[in-house]
Amino acid sequence: MGGPGVGPLPSSGSPSELDRLRAAVALYFPIYETQIAPASLVLSVHVDPATLEEKFDRLCKDLWRLFYVPILHYQTGEYTIEVIRRPVPRYKGVWINIILLVATIASVDFAGALIWLSYEGQSTITSDAFLWGGLTFALPLMLILGLHELAHYWMSRRYQLEASLPFFIPVPPPLLLGTFGAFISIRQPFTDRKALFDIGAAGPIAGFIVAIPVTILGLYLSAHSVAPSLAACGPTVLGTSYSNLVLNSPPLWYVLSLFFPISGNIHPLEFAGWVGILVTSLNLLPAGQLDGGHVWRALLGDRARFMSIAAVFFLFAIGLFFYFGWLIIGFLVLLMGVRHPPPLNDITPIGLGRTLAGVGVAAILVSGFVLVPISAPGGAIGFSNATIQYPAHPPPGTLVAANLSVIIQNSDEIAHGFFFSTTVQNVSVRAQNGSWQYLSGAALTAYAENSTWTFYFPNGTSVVLHGASVMTSSSAYVTIASYASAPLAVMYTNPSAARSILIQLAAMEVCPPVGAGSASTNFALSPR
């Protein structure tokens, strides 16, 4: 949400115009001195602090109709009112609002379809995906964002300030959320700090109130959902599977998790609530023209500029070290302006009630903020405790079978599915002349193709593969929970005897980016 400043300052005007302006001010404040500046009229006035706020509000409305703006100053014990010409806004109608709204609904529904497919463990977009993605993600998210902006609009109209309808910002697929939110344009300067606070806080409070029940219902549905197989990667966007995306929890989630266990399979409704809470918190950062910039400018006056500068430095710091997206937000804040313009009446305090409400607004900011909103762990996997066991009575000096075992460790914050590949790297066999030689080329390939691998998985299933191959059957996937480990046993056999064999066992993450999480270990088999 943004508010205008006053436009370029004009010449002082004709004598009759100056008299009209003096008369408009004198209707509310006795004038005892007049100064005509090159671009404004400065009037020293007598003020009754008890009626200052009410009378100045009326003066603002009167002068606005005359295409002027009054600015109240207090310095060295004197009150002055500076009158300047206001810019004439250019109205473009509501068509742009309607077009952006329709485009945003379409882009958010597309995002919802992808999120629904990920939730269901599917990858093909269907009409059902658009339907359920729209109902469970697009509709609640647009409701949160829309009521946020309409609350700004309603509060602006309550203070009789001209404001536009919301401008929604669509984000075309394949980006994740489908929108960058929305904003309204306030076409008048804020009259005083109370208006600045109320208009700035109205949107986040309304959005937060709607996001809470959406989130609670989404958490309930997530907790009672059945997680799809990790072999079902869902749609892939920009080379990364949606199933690999992690929504990191803000502090509010840890409070809600006391009542609803947090599930690894996130329902789209929970996703919508998470986005709504995050957007609300982001808007409350005490920077520039953000909602938080309005609120903290109202609370702290001109001292809020220090918080705004600190907030921008904070965004750049966490953008460099934690999450790149914060750099984009930081640059946007710089473009909008770090220093918030003062309201026309920057003297009247906002009162104890709004000051206490500011504490609640700060609590909303803290409860919904997270340093790394979305991450895509790459399947951090490792092998340990690799052991080899030979048959009890192998042929003398040769090898035809061995039992291999290894511990697979997943050091990521989410569960992953992995598939395996086997490679026979070198083999030593007895030649016809009785000497030992290493196979190469076609001979090594032929030997490897005669190999049989029997994988015994932790869930009690087993899969038999022949040759040096990669598992592609869904039954061959190994699912390992976050920060967990699992044993894997492999029996290797080959009818052709060999003296020594070097085998490589490799594991790779199932879902894209394939191979982002991978590990391998070698088994050197030699006779006893």
TrEMBL record:
Protein name in the entry: Peptidase M50 family protein
| Keywords, ordered alphabetically | Chloroplast, Hydrolase, Membrane, Plastid, Protease, Transit peptide, Transmembrane, Transmembrane helix
Primary residence: membrane
Q: Which residues cross the membrane?
A: 94-117, 129-147, 167-184, 196-221, 306-335, 355-374
Q: What InterPro entries does the annotation carry?
A: EGY1-like (IPR044838), Peptidase_M50 (IPR008915)
Swiss-Prot/TrEMBL GO biological process terms: proteolysis
All copies of the Peptidase M50 domain together span: 137-322
Q: Which GO terms describe its molecular function?
A: peptidase activity
Q: Name one GO cellular component term.
A: chloroplast
Kindly list the places in or outside the cell where this protein is found, as annotated in its UniProt entry: Membrane; Plastid, Chloroplast
Bilayer topology term: Multi-pass membrane protein
